[in-house]
Amino acid sequence: MSVELYDATLRDGMQGEGMSLTAQEKVRVAHALDALGIGYIEAGFPASNPKELELFGLLEHETFTTAQIVAFGMTRRRGVAAAEDEGLRTLRDCFAPVCTIVGKTWGLHLEKVVRVSRGENLAMIAESVAFLAEAGKRVIYDAEHFFDGYRDDPAYALECLRAAAAGGAERVVLCDTNGSSLPHQIGEAVTVVGAALELPLGIHCHNDLECGVANSLAAVAAGATQVQGTMNGVGERTGNANLVSIIAALQLKLERPVIAPEQMARLTATAHFLDELLNLIPDPNQPWVGRNAFAHKGGLHVAGVRVDARTFEHADPETVGNARALLVSELAGRHSAAEKASVAGISLDDAGAVRVIERVKALEHAGYQFEAADASFELLLREEAGEYEPLFRLESWRTIVEQRADGQVACEATIKIWVTPPGADTPVRYVQTAEGNGPVNALDAALRLAIGSTHPHLKVVQLVNYKVRILDEAHGTGATTRVLLDSSDGERTWGTIGVAENVIAASWQALVQSLEYAEQPARVRP
Q: What percent helix, strand, coil does the chain show, rounded to 5?
């Protein structure tokens, strides 16, 4: 039996702290979800605010291949006829062919929130669904707090679903709105409802117990044929069920095809695209699509993967558009170094690979960490292979920080380096001074001015991320510091690392490595 995918990122997902997209950005997300093969995209409640009004105005003129736009609302207000309820009339008049309305199931909410009798709640559900169905809308009914209500009063929870069915709902969705349920509770309830109700069922889970994905899969196993969730699990409190993981698990583990193989290969890119729009750093440990989802660090694991990836991988990373990563650390073996060298086009024999790993172990003991510093590690490989040449010889550098009378802080850096120009036999001394927003920025600017005379192409290299970590916190301001830099030339992004007794010296190390790496031959990177 097929399973429908229903994405609620644009509405439910935006309820999470810091989650916000413009109307135009939401349209871009909708097209990305359509390309992924999502069947239903819940856009929100039209006219609830100016942004939603603008969004529905834009979506009305967009064309989608797979997805249908869904308008979201709620049952009529108490004491108001469905035909007179402004919210329901807005849903009726919008272009969206599908409307999802949410209603109460749990007696606690009837008593404390909406303050209506159980009979009136049933009437609100049936009349609201009927109003939209009679207007030609396809209606999905979301039974809010269904599982809490079911545990409190199973008979009444089923009555609420029957009221939606009587009104003409094409599907009822069982919502674990508090995220309070465990997989066995979800499965048992869905089984009972499926036997009692001749209507397709859906599942909508939140992730408060870290069971959102497991609960959704349990519901499908028990008979649910629609799964609602959000991309990357964004949403209120701890988020919603992660639709990314659900899609992969349904198709690749439960063998329930939901999207085409070529669409599945877009899963990682789509997940990261949403993070980019939301200005979030993709979670490196996110299952299936995270940078570390198929990363191997231990030497034994790396050796096993090289022989047969199935030994330490539950799926082929390329299936979901991800890639295998062989991390380099004190736990790694020579195979990791050999693999990295091969990717970079460096010729390194077994003895050289062993020496590199031994050096990595010593450096990591001193505070270095090469997992995120791929460029720094490649420079180690090149040095071992005899392919490394420094860009310049340092004479000295210094930074000055002063607070002026007007309260402004000025930062200045001066560097003195010796560089051999292309085609020349002898080095030339360069002295450059620059100001910046902080000592590291000033140092970066001065270095670029000095090296730019002989290597002008390096001017395009920009720092895109800067991370500082104190390694021995007991020493306070005198502690050893580790700096990780991410740099980019507009096409590639790489990481470099520096470790020193202060943040400026550590930053200098990472800055120099960033430019040295950019000077290396271009290559295809995984």
A: 45, 20, 35
Q: What are 242's strand-pairing partners?
A: 230
Contacting residues for 148 by C-beta, under 8 A, at least 6 apart? 105, 106, 108, 177, 178, 180
DSSP assignments along 341-387, one per residue: HHHHT----HHHHHHHHHHHHHHHHTT---SS-HHHHHHHHHHHTT-
Choose the final residue of a domain: 207, 235, 259. Answer: 259
pLDDT tens digits, 3-47:
999 999 999 998 888 888 888 889 999 999 999 999 999 999 987
**Total residue count of the chain as it appears in this document:** 526
pLDDT in tens, 176-224: 999 999 999 999 999 999 999 999 999 999 999 999 999 999 999 999 9
Q: Is there a domain that residue 186 lies in?
A: yes
CA distances for 482 relative to 112, 195, 328, 363, 415, angstroms:
53, 60, 17, 12, 22
**What's the total number of domains in the chain?**
2
Q: What is the pLDDT of residues 364-385, one digit of tens each?
A: 888 888 877 889 999 999 999 8
Q: Both 246 and 308 in a single domain?
A: no
pLDDT greater at residue 398 or residue 323 = 398
**97 Cβ contact list (under 8 Å, min separation 6):** 68, 69, 137, 138
Strand partners, 467: 484
Distances, alpha carbon 394 to alpha carbons 303, 436, 517, in Å: 40, 21, 17
User: Is residue 400's pLDDT more than 80?
Assistant: yes
Tell me the torsion sign for CA atoms 279, 280, 281, 286. negative
In a domain, 231, yes or no: yes
